[in-house]
Design goal:
Blueprint: H1 14-36, E1 60-65, E2 74-80, E3 109-113, E4 118-125, H2 135-139, E5 169-172, E6 187-191, E7 194-196, E8 199-203, E9 208-212, E10 218-221, E11 232-235, E12 240-243, E13 249-255, E14 263-269, E15 274-276, E16 282-284, E17 292-300, E18 304-312, E19 317-325
Parallel strand pairs: 4-19, 6-9, 8-14
Antiparallel strand pairs: 1-2, 3-19, 4-16, 5-15, 5-17, 6-7, 9-12, 10-11, 13-14, 17-18
């Protein structure tokens, strides 16, 4: 071969290529770790140790609210020693309410009358509490049409200008049962979702009417009287039902299950010698009471009871004034 002939170039050795690549990767890794800095050793945290119990020492952390230079942020202050509690100024106690006026009713005043009748008045002593408005009656879609102004009120004490007490029942309590002839039978009406009158009295066995003068349905429920059989029935507009109670019993309560505020009372006397006071507190018993000595008694749902002895005879009656007190 002559000196001027071209020489052959062989292909690179694959093993040398791999070694060179690994060396290059090692150099790059070293440069990366050197730039990142030394790695931190992993250190396991020690377990939480229980706090020692410190007796006879109090530490208070006060939380305050920054006003100046901040937006109301709350910051924790340093531990401070507790300050003694400041004495609060003594507040004036409200005045004790005055005790309610105690009114003592006088004994019944009895005078003889020349007409042979038993009559008189019932007067309330003291100032009764104000009656409460029955707002449900006025707000009801049907009942409210009867009340263009004020709502109806309760009728615990219905008192006239001169103290006459309405709805008190006066009767002879020792007259023979079934004696006498009762007056006109009363009628219990339902008007404006109220029972009218509030109190009626009948003789045992005497029939009375219950009617509905409203333009919508009511329900008449006498509950469960102690000495009589009760009743409970629906009553359409304009409907009239006739009822009676066979035995003497005071204050049988009538309600309406459709309008729960409705209430009225029926008192049943054993004889015909009874009456219910009017708006002036006046009463007159029926005629025909035989001559003799009797016990005359007044009963009111709230004010209670009082009684007195009377004597009637030919041309001799009794004029009685009862006083009842607010309770």
């Amino acid at each position: 071969m002559s000196k001027n002939a071209p020489s052959k170039c062989g292909s690179p050795d694959p093993l040398l290529v791999i070694v060179a690549t690994l060396l290059l990767l090692a150099v790059l890794a070293t440069l990366y770790l050197a730039a990142k800095g030394p790695s931190k050793p992993l250190v396991s945290e020690p377990p939480v140790r229980p706090r020692p119990i410190i007796q006879d020492e109090t530490r208070v952390v006060v939380v305050t609210k920054e006003v100046a230079g901040g937006a109301g942020a709350e910051t924790a202050g340093k531990a401070t020693e507790p300050k003694p509690a400041e004495a609060k100024p003594t507040e004036a106690k409200p005045a004790e309410p005055k005790a309610a006026e105690v009114v003592t009713a006088a004994a019944p005043a009895v005078k003889a009358s020349a007409d042979g009748k038993v009559h008189g008045r019932v007067i309330l002593k003291g100032t009764p509490p104000p009656e409460k408005a029955i707002g449900a009656a006025k707000s009801d879609a049907f009942c409210g049409k009867s009340y263009t102004d004020a709502a109806p009120t309760t009728r615990n004490y219905v008192v006239g200008a001169d103290g006459g007490l309405r709805y008190a029942v006066v009767r002879i309590i020792n007259a023979p049962a079934g004696s006498g002839t009762p007056g006109e039978s009363p009628a219990i009406d339902q008007h404006g979702c109220m029972y009218e009158p509030y109190v009626v009295a009948v003789m045992a066995g005497q029939k009375f009417q219950v009617k509905n003068s409203d333009t919508f349905l009511h329900n008449v429920n006498s509950g469960k009287p102690k000495n009589n059989s009760g009743f409970n029935f629906s009553q359409a507009a304009g409907q009239v039902n006739e009822k009676s109670f066979d035995n003497g019993e005071m204050w049988i309560k009538m309600i309406c299950n459709v309008h729960p505020w409705m209430a009225g009372y029926v008192c049943v006397a054993e004889s015909a010698y009874f009456a219910v006071t009017n708006d002036k507190g006046e009463f007159t018993l029926p005629d025909g009471l035989p001559a003799g000595k009797y016990k005359l008694q007044v009963d009111h749902l709230k004010a209670g009871t009082a009684s007195t002895d009377i004597e009637v005879g030919a041309g001799k009656g009794a004029d009685v004034t009862f006083e009842l007190a607010v309770k």
